[in-house]
């Protein structure tokens, strides 16, 4: 496999493709991201292309091995999922231009320079429209891929359980009962290996939604795609939307996103509890690794996540009303 970890190496790789394929004007290595090396290529025509390359390790932690087949899964998802979904003027998956499966180089349409997370504070951002559109789009993905084969992405399943297996340490640090985490991991974390209901994006959050200059949204970073339970996608985005609403301006992204998803069909109680469990795990764990506020505010968010898990585990069927998932009830 060709090593491509800097711009000069990428230029050499592109040069071997021939001038007929790439009319290079400029090439910029993009910041951010943990797994892959990513560039924005500008052709002389003005066309922008995103180039992603996978090495057999994490970009931000070269000592940690990470299978390069993640790029194979991303390519398969980005080419097989879009034809199954209803066309949308707001939400789409970037077009794939080219994929080199030997060098694990993926060239795709540029979906925009800002993520939804970065754009959240923009006063002109149409949060209600975007939230509902993303909820509807995600519901469509889950509803239309019940019989879609995507392969067995073992790395994705393992990484997705990380928050479950490390939750007890976070709870103990912030004065919550670690036995709750152990129960959640045993009862729900274990399901991540066997869930097989539909195609899940696998890392669905505002940081993987791009916004272009025309106000269109693109869903990117599909390397964690897997067959699983759609409640995990829903719970992850709802948790991150709540964090944005709580710490970045209260624009109601969580509410409109959940309304968009709920408006596409009936959700049974089993599914709703699974959403709550995953959202609770995310809120109770990730803010202890990624800073959103002060230590006091982090402790508060961990408690919110724990309360959501506890309510979902309870036998009272009215647990959903008044919770952070209130918009999902019938």
From TrEMBL:
Keyword rRNA processing: no
Key word Kinase present: yes
Domain Protein kinase: 24-330
Organism, as annotated: Letharia columbiana
Sorted UniProt keywords: ATP-binding, Kinase, Nucleotide-binding, Transferase
PANTHER family: METHYLTHIORIBOSE KINASE
Xref: InterPro entries: Aminoglycoside_PTrfase (IPR002575), Kinase-like_dom_sf (IPR011009), Prot_kinase_dom (IPR000719)
Protein name as annotated: Protein kinase domain-containing protein
Homology family: Belongs to the methylthioribose kinase family.
Molecular-function annotations in GO: ATP binding; protein kinase activity
Record-linked PROSITE patterns: PROTEIN_KINASE_DOM
Top-rank lineage group of the source organism: Eukaryota
